[in-house]
Amino acid sequence: MSQQQYFHQGSACALPIDNVDTDQIIPKQFLTGISRDGFGAALFYDWRYLDDGAPNPDFVLNQPQFQGVSILVAGHNFGCGSSREHAPWALAQFGFKVVVASSFADIFYRNCINNKLLPAQVSTTDLKRLTAVCEQRAEAIKVDLEQQQLVLSNGEAIPFSIASSDRDQLLDDCDFIGVAEQHLDAIDRYENDRATTVPWFMPLSFTV
Amino acid sequence: MGMTLYEKIYDQHQVAQLNDSTDLLYIDFHFIHEVTSPQAFAGLKQAGRTVRNPVATLATMDHNISTQNRRIDGAGEVSQQQLTALQKHCREFQIPLIDITHRDQGIVHVIGPEQGITQPGMTIVCGDSHTSTHGAFGALAFGIGTSEVEHVLATQTLPQQRAKNMKVQIDGQLPMGVTAKDVILAVIGRIGTAGGSGYVVEYCGSAIESMDMEERMTVCNMTIEMGAKAGLIAPDEVTFSYLQGRPRAPSGDQWQRALARWKTLKSDADAVFDKTVHIDASSIRPQITWGTSPEQVMAVTERVPDPANFPATEQQRSVAKALEYMGLTPGSLLQDYPVDVVFIGSCTNSRLVDLRQAAAVVKGGRVAPHVRALVVPGSAQVKREAEAEGLADVFRAAGFEWREPGCSMCLAMNDDIVPAGKRCVSTSNRNFEGRQGRLARTHLASPAVAASAAIHGYLSTNPLVSGEGLI
Q1: For residue A1, what pLDDT band results from cuts at 50, 70 and 90?
Q2: What residues of B are in contact with residue A115 (Cβ under 8 Å)?
């Protein structure tokens, strides 16, 4: 397989914690901006930095052997809690392209897809194995989205699942609002119909 | 085969099929707020798009505002920038805005129902995970990300995939002093933080039916804390009587038509649920969280769990980590730990019923000298009503701070922050690490339990045990 056919190739680190919530991924004090940029430095802020703002040497992203990682091997129910899309923005802006977990929270999962960040779901057993490897070293992994597998440096392949429509959205350079706009006639028809059947849902004006 | 309420609402909103698994669903109403909308507006402008249906949208300011005053710069310059951006975007796209000084201002999930905007059978979204609150009216309501906010602004639709159906049936009578908050915390304890992933949860049973709308909102609000897409309660007479006469509810002939339609909104008797959970209401006790996830919850009289008693090593590790963060010893009683802060508020528990329950416990008492306690009503309307009823006087006389409406200490985006290492009993919805401030220790509980902790200065002063009356 040629290099281009991989969705991504990079090195991985492990964060083997279950139920990592989006408050941990990006704490609220960094949500005050009005742009989509500048969140990478605040990723995992409370774990990554000490009280005085210095890097916490115990945190995986601060350890020398894990510099430059682009694949995060997480735990179960990653991304639960707040709907803040700042979470995938922070992960992507830090440099992550792929998050591997045994499950993802629904809103976070959708936010990842909409930001071309791959949420790769693997079995609990495979996650344990992968975590063990990535705790030792920044394992080089090839991410094959067509075949839906993570290929480790020894050639071992770990399958992951993703809905085909989500895979297509990651691979296509499509504007997902543009997809809906192809159905504007249907939306018009729907609204006209609703104005008759449920007019109380369709206010013509609304002043506060 | 019969259909669930979720399936009925889903089907009624299908505009087009995008592929094998994805439908384009029509969104009846879209709430926006200052924190998760600016980038959506920027995206719209960048792509040369506009807002398709501004009057199906309502903007409010709640997350980032001061609750000490109504000044737009009350919570600092950075927050002001976000608030003025919202004003500007609403003017530009002609979206109705309930500004910080508006007489109806409040937390988005409090004012939507209050104004009669939230109605049975609707699809409702907001860039906020607690949008599940609106499911209490039999509306399909869920939180979305900012890219989806942009999508809804542009098209009034969202691509969606069908969720699975879960039924949570709670029958029987709740013991005295057990509230809706205890019910949902107990449910989350049973189902787990991820147990609802991929599901829409419909709550039913006699205990749910006997709740008023504000209690039902508390239940649906925290549905997201078990990972579910949305919570639903079939509309009934309680729903209809709550809605009748509200500013945005249908009136006259349309009320009758709406009512006829709303009465059809329930799961069929032969509807199939992918998962069903039964809970005996009489077995539920006042709850409190001991850890850093809403599933780490117990009855207030129970002992703090011991990591060694959990079967899996991952669980042992996560429980030990939570207890270390929370500063709790396995096997201890929470009543032995002094409380530093009590917060009564948030989209979970800031409505009039919540404040009444708290005030009933507080009445005549004094906040313990070492406790800082605040009540943040959910909306300006709740605040006015609570003041008219004398609840505000009860709180103030006891030494509570009585604040202006906003999200406040639930997520501590403004200056309402729990200091590091301090212990807070909070009526909000998340006890995550750092949620209420870096290294802050959060215990989630009902307004009654929180009020009791404020007066006694210690956790776990169970209103049931201590004999304090609830209304």
Answers
A1: very low
A2: 147
